[in-house]
Every structure is written in C-alpha cells, then in structure tokens.
Amino acid sequence: MAEIVIVGLGPGDVKHLTLEAWQMLSHAKEIWLRTAHHPVVTALPEHLTLHSFDALYEQAGTFEEIYETIAERVVALAREPGCDSLIYAVPGHPLMGESTVTGILARAREVALDVRVVAGLSFVEPLLTALEIDALNGLQVVDALDIITRYHPPLNPDTPALIAQVYSRAVASDLKLVLMNQYPDEHQVALVDAAGNAAQTVTWLPLYQIDWHEATPLTSLYLPPLSPVSSFEGLQDTVAHLRSPEGCPWDREQTPATLRACLLEEAYEVLAAIDAEDTGALQEELGDLLMQVVMLVQLSVELGDFRMNDVIAGIDTKLKRRHPHVWGEVTVADVDAVLQQWEVLKREERDHQGDAESSLLAGIPQALPALAQASEYYRRMARVGLTGDILAGPVSEVVERIAPQDEAALGELLFACVRWACQHDLDPESALRALNHRFARRVQALIVAAGRQGKALGDLSPDELAHLWSEQR
After folding, report:
1. What is the number of other CB atoms lying within 10 angstroms of the CB of residue 376?
2. In the CATH hierarchy, which top-level class contains the domain 125-223?
3. Which long-range contacts (CB under 8 A, 24 or more apart) does 268-276 make?
4. Closest by alpha carbon to 173, among 143, 209, 226?
C-alpha cells in the first residue's frame, strides 16, 4: 500500500535539516514542496525532481481554500496507480503551523492511507536562541493570521507570546491594531526575521511601529509579558490566594451574603466615577467591582457550584444567541427593532425553559433603586407597545389629584415622570443623581456665602436665606 512521507525542511538553513530528513531526501527521486520559496530548497540534492504548489497561491481564494486544495491533491497523488511513496516537504516542522499537514492526516485516515512524519526543526527553536528565552516560561505560540481575524487578542498578557507569519506590512498593521486592544502602544516588542539563518535580524521597537519595517515570510513577532499582573487568570489566582489557608482571615470569612453590601457599594462607586467623567477613578473603581465578581465566583468554586469558565461561557453564549443580527442571518433596521427582537428571544428562552407564564418584568432585580426599577419596568412594557398615557396619566393630571399624605398619588406622579423621561430618552436615575449633586454644591456654596458674612445658616433670617440661596447658581 502506498504511503505519504511528510518531511520537515527546518527553518531555512540546510544545517538545520535533521539527519533523518537528509537521508530521506538523498534516496528519493522526486518530492512535492508546499512552496519552493524556502531557503533550504536551493541546497537540496541536485538529482531530485522538484514539484511545488506555488501556482495555487497565484489563484484567487483564501489561504484556507489553498491549503485544503493542496491536502486533497497530495492524497490524490499518493493514491494514483504505481505510486508506492509520495514525499511531501514543508518548511519547519510538519506539525508547527502547517494546516496542509493536518488536512493530509485527516484525509489519509478516511481512505486508510499510511502517513509518516519526518520531524524537522521548527521556526521556534532558532527564535528561542535569537531572543535568549526559555519556552517553558509560559511561552504562547500563535499565528498572526488567526489574531487578525479577531477584535481582542487571545493571549495571556502575563506570559510571553511568539506570533508567527507576520509576513507583510499589511499583516503587521492589522496585527498591531488587535494587539493594542490589550497591550500599551509603547510596549517594547521584537521583530525577528530569518531566525537561525545568516540573514537573521532582531529589531526591538514599540508595538505601534511594527508595520514601519519590511516583513518577509520568515518574520515573527515576540511579545514580552506585561508587568505587574494584568490577566484575568492572574487576578483569579490572587483572589484564590486570599481565600486560601495562607491568605487573609477576613477574606476567608466572606460569603455571598456578606459581600452583598460590598458589591452594591462598588457598583455605586463606578457610577460616581462615570458621573464625574473621571477616567482615572473609573479605572480604579472598575477594578474594585471586578474583584467582587471574581471573589463571588471563587466562593462558588469552593462550594462546587460553578467556575469562572461556566460564567464566561454562559454570558458569551447568551450574547451570541441574543444577537442573531451579528452572529446569524437576521437583519434589523434600527435600535427599536433590536429591542423588539430582544424581547422575542427572551420570551422564546422562557418558553424553552418551561417558564412561558413568567412575567414580562421577570429578571428585573428587586434590589434596584425605585427610580431605576420603574425605568426598567416602563422600558420593558414599551418594547411590547404599551406606551403613552396607558401606564400613567399626564403629569399635570396626577399633580392635581395629589392630596396631603397621599402616597399612592405621589407614586403615580413619580411613575408619570419616569414615563415622560423614558419617552424622551432620558434616564431619571441619572437626572436625579445629577440634580442631587448640583443641590449639594449649591448648599455648600450657601454655607460659604453665609460664612463670608460671619454667620451660620441658622443665624440668617428667612429673607436673608432666600436671597443668598437665589445667588447660588
């Protein structure tokens, strides 16, 4: 039965060919190359007949399509009558960034065709030498072509990363935009070209400059880790340490119930930073809030209830399910259509969970401040078309009905105000919080103004107090 022998040609210098690979190539008559554009090809034994798939790269199509075609042709060639052994050679190691090889292995299994892999030195080992780093120090090895298809890099910033196939300025440009979603623009990185060859270069530069330099098919990017701890996993480890026997006595005593007040307080601190438009405070307060989330998950891990991956997988799945206009084939015209679709999807989820009778208002936290809760109630009803004066009469009508100590009428007035705010795309909670802030500043200004007259507020007559108050705008 015929077999396919896949040979790794190493990173580019003939001295890096393994003895097994050289012996295989020395005794062969012909070989198929994924690409002839590899430095070692010119040093192969002269008697070899060389074929390559380079012509496929000139045809229209994605790299995935090209690699699938190569895999199909290699298997087809090996199955032709009279073929005892087909040698297919690739740069580096056959199982390091060579999707044609994984494609060949999969197709060969389907037709019961034998495949032998002759290992080669990959691009990684010369890069380790050039950079003088240890791969077992958490080194991540990824493909630039995978990263540039994303909006956020799939990397742990606490450990180093090696990114291969930065073969052009265009790729480098797309790559840096994704990486700068996680790494600082000035983060010092290294562009390494032709590692292990005579033409090897290592260029250290800021991340934002990586597309200022020429790149070749042998160019890779090295990302040193960030410091201090910057990853989600690193924070989880810190919190788990706090909860450990070697950690903090106070943190070890916490429960979800005891953390409730902390969670609420940190959430309001975030809101305060947003209202103040203070980005420095917002960064700090988001960290405090995130710590509460991680701590609550750690408590659940210890109880065996769920883990962080369950939390993340759950919300990621929900986001994609509830955005079929982004991850599906649904088309929406505007924001209103998105909100209506959102309610339909949530109703379908309730039906699927056997909770078809669940209220439209289900899921709105009972612990929300009253104004925020009323706003969410109104918005939920508005999504299904229950708007206007149906939910509460005009503000003027409600005011006329208010009698002394009439709590019900006051509630109607407040709800009518909420309805009016929502209809005008205003947030009553933010509006009241802003007014409270202005009111507090005005009171403080009033106290200062009275102090300039050598008086306390209680020393002022009603007329003096009214006059000073009117001046504090």
Report:
1. 18
2. alpha beta
3. 271/433, 275/430, 275/433, 275/434, 275/437
4. 209
- Collapsing DSSP states into helix, strand and coil, what is residue 313? helix
- Alpha-carbon Rg of the chain, whole angstroms? 33
Residue at 130: amino acid letter: A
φ and ψ at residue 254, rounded to 5 degrees:
-70, 150
Enumerate residue ranges in the chain where pLDDT < 70: 1, 60, 350-351, 353-363, 366, 377-378, 380-405, 457
* pLDDT in the model for residue 357: 41
Q: What whole-number distance in Å separates Cα of residue 192 and Cα of residue 201?
A: 6
Q: How many CA atoms lie within 13 A of 347 on its CB side?
A: 12
Residue 464 to residues 285, 443, 450, 456, 469: CA-CA distances in angstroms? 42, 14, 9, 12, 8
How much helix, strand and coil, in percent to the nearest 5, is found in the chain?
A: 55, 10, 35
Multiple choice CATH, 3-122, 1.10.274.10, 3.30.1490.270, 3.40.1280.10, 3.40.1010.10: 3.40.1010.10
Whole-number Å distance between alpha carbons of 408 and 392: 12
Q: Which sequence spans correspond to the domains of the chain?
A: 3-122, 125-223, 232-304, 430-471
User: Domain 232-304: what homologous superfamily?
Assistant: MazG-like (1.10.287.1080)
162: exposed, middle or buried (C-beta count within 10 Å: 0-12, 13-18, 19+)? buried
Alpha carbon distances (Å) from 202 to 36, 165, 166, 194: 25, 15, 14, 9
DSSP letters spanning 104-152: HHHHHHHTT-EEEEE----SHHHHHHHHT--TTTT-EEEEHHHHTTSSS
Distance, in Å, from the CA atom of 8 to the CA atom of 22, rounded to the nearest integer, reads: 10
Q: State how far the Cα of 295 lies from the Cα of 304, in Å rounded to an integer.
A: 14
pLDDT tens, 100-150?
999 999 999 999 999 999 999 999 999 999 999 999 999 999 999 999 999
| Amino acid (1-letter code) at residue 295 | M
Phi, psi of 223 (to 5 degrees): -110, 110
Residues β-bridged to residue 32 = 51, 88
User: And the tokens for 179?
Assistant: 């990486």
pLDDT 10s digits, 274-321: 989 999 999 999 999 999 999 999 999 999 999 999 999 999 999 999
